[in-house]
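dude i think i finally got it to work??
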Amino acid sequence: MEVVIVGSPEEAGRLAGGAITSLLANKPGAVLGVATGSSPLPVYADLGRRRQAGELSFAAARAFLLDEYVGLPAGHPQSYRAFIASELEARVDFAPGAVQGPDVADDSEGIPAACERYDADIAAAGGVDIQVLGIGTDGHIGFNEPGSSLGSRTRLKTLTARTRADNARFFAAPEEVPRHVVTQGIGTILDARHIVLLAFGSAKAPAVAAAVEGPVTAMVPASALQLHRHVTVVVDHPAAADLQLAGYYRETYTAKPSWQGL
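look at this
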């Protein structure tokens, strides 16, 4: 696991955007894993700038959403499909149908089968090359809440009160936040070849420290990333405040060969 401490979310966006640009230059048909929330926004903004400058193209690429709410009407502006459409797809040049999310329209009997199909679709596409992640204040990734199996696959999850409260700012009222989601499981996420986790602000500092330097435990789902062979954690100074080895991370990143990238 590599930890990169940067001066701002915009700098983090440029770093992650550069990694995706390099991937697409070498593999135009790459598969991306895309997340929602505020943390990935600097990355999507950077990719939009690069696309406008002619530095990259998503024309042959594919993308899979990390998760989706269950119970929102089709086309709801707070659905994660709508979020990715406005924050990423509108800025770049994915082909029609190249971005896929989990099917949450099925009834209770159909959702488990839809989850299995989603994992199968990711595998059939060749697997995710770069998965973009945020982290919750309780250490969740995707919507794998504390206590989630570290080997879990895409499935239906019930959101905790804390996570619903964290997401309430995106809705007109807290009670409008759905109680259920379909999310890629931790095991599904760990199948990606490269994982880039972003976190900004002091509120994320305890979760970042627990995920990076604490024990691997289901109580901190993001700690499972310690078991992955290629994880890059990009955080600003406030989010890095609780890291015991922050000085080491800064030293090793500064001395890193320029050709190595993320």
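The chain has a mean pLDDT of 95.
im so relieved honestly
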